[in-house]
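Researcher: Sequence recovery benchmark, item below. Answer with residues only.
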């Protein structure tokens, strides 16, 4: 385990930068707090070069745990406010209750429908002809459930 004795402050800063890049690609906020802990340990290792690798890892563990638990309690104490537009950014939910004209038939309970600028898969209990009016009753993943309007 001699290689652990070679860890210096900038190693922690590299870990912090890598974790920030991971955070930017995942947007989970989890890696951000671990990155902050790594940056803090890097700073402490810079101002206290006599700090052992075991001490650095213990501090990293403590700072990571404290920051993650602190964020959890912070978010729990401040819940997100309800919005007056619950379907915003939930595109399929915006179509529930709307009526559309079929551009293609629904056969064996399955078909497609053009809605605004997108094509959606539809499922129905019955078959429909092209030109029939259907009403969207529900959303199942990326499939619109329809019935006769």
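Model:
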């Amino acid at each position: 385990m001699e290689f652990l004795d070679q860890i210096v402050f900038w190693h922690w800063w590299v870990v912090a930068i890598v974790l920030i890049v991971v955070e930017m690609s995942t947007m989970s906020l989890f890696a951000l707090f671990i990155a902050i802990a790594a940056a803090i340990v890097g700073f402490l290792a810079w101002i206290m070069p006599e700090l052992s690798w075991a001490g650095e890892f213990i501090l990293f563990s403590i700072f990571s745990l404290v920051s993650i638990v602190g964020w959890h309690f912070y978010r729990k104490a401040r819940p997100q406010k309800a919005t007056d537009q619950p379907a915003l950014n939930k595109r399929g939910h915006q179509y529930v209750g709307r009526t559309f004209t079929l551009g293609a038939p629904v056969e064996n309970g399955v078909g497609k429908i053009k809605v605004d600028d997108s094509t959606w898969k539809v499922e129905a209990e019955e078959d429909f002809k092209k030109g029939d009016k259907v009403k969207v009753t529900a959303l199942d993943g990326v499939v619109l459930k329809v019935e006769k309007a």
